[in-house]
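job 3f2a | input accepted
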Amino acid sequence: MILRYLCISLCLLGCVSLEAQSVLPLGAWRQTNVTWKKPPAELELKERYSEAAILYFSPDQRFVLLYGTIIQGPKSEEVSGGDGQVVYLGTWKLTDSILHIEYRLVSRTVAKEGETLPGPLQSADIRVEKNKLLFQKDHFERDQNLDKELRAILQGEWLRNSRP
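job 3f2a | predicted structure (164 res):
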């Protein structure tokens, strides 16, 4: 009888382990290895800001990579609308613990001379570890505070770039 319970327990643990490995990294993921700065003291703002990359994975396998300024307040977090942004759009596919992405540059606040948009198609792999992602030597952690904003950016850019 004890052997039966032990076998059932091991089977259940195996299923949970397999299930944990197949969890999809949906939503916004913010770069963690950044330097946070505070606004000038005379502004008396209770926030900090940093230049960071944000990855966003939608359930329909669309993807956005945004480089911009993140502003964190005591109860909020957002992408600064008054600072420059660089936006890449693409698609993703999960295989084991690797996210394969294909993406291209679609917008940049300050245009580079001679640059044509959309840019060329690029591909890369993102390693999925327990509760973080590793992309281009940077670590990313899940950031639900940015989900709604990044979803809106993805939808807006996707519509704008899918028109003939």
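job 3f2a | The helical segments are 2-21, 147-162.
job 3f2a | closed
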